[in-house]
Amino acid sequence: MATICADTTYCTPLVFVLSTGADPLAALLKYAESMGYEERLKRISLGQGQAKKANDLIEASCKDGNWVML
Questions:
Q1: What is the chain's Cα-based Rg?
Q2: What are the residue ranges spanned by the domains of the chain?
Q3: Are 13 and 19 in contact (CB under 8 A)?
Q4: Contacts by residues 41-45 (CB-CB < 8 Å, ≥ 24 positions apart)
Q5: What stretches of 6-70 adopt beta strand conformation (E)?
Q6: pTM for the whole thing?
Q7: What is the pLDDT of residues 3-56, one digit of tens each?
Q8: Alpha-carbon distance 10 to 39, whole Å?
Q9: Is 25 exposed, middle or buried (0-12, 13-18, 19+ CB in 10 A)?
């Protein structure tokens, strides 16, 4: 995760393309903890009716410097 993040900036979203059985959540949580961001990593599951909540979370996180995992 550190290598991936080193290739990004605050303006660059990370997009994980998953295959069956792949789940980057554990690695992302561990990395967030190592960076002191465990409280700043916000997560939301996308589904019916979640678009506005997700959009609001992304907008707020852009202002606050938080991370968002959809």
A1: 13
A2: 2-69
A3: no
A4: 41/66, 41/67, 41/68, 41/69, 42/66, 42/67, 42/68, 42/69, 43/68, 43/69, 43/70, 44/68, 44/69, 44/70, 45/70
A5: 41-43, 67-69
A6: 0.77
A7: 888 888 877 888 888 889 888 889 999 999 999 999 999 999 999 999 999 999
A8: 17
A9: exposed
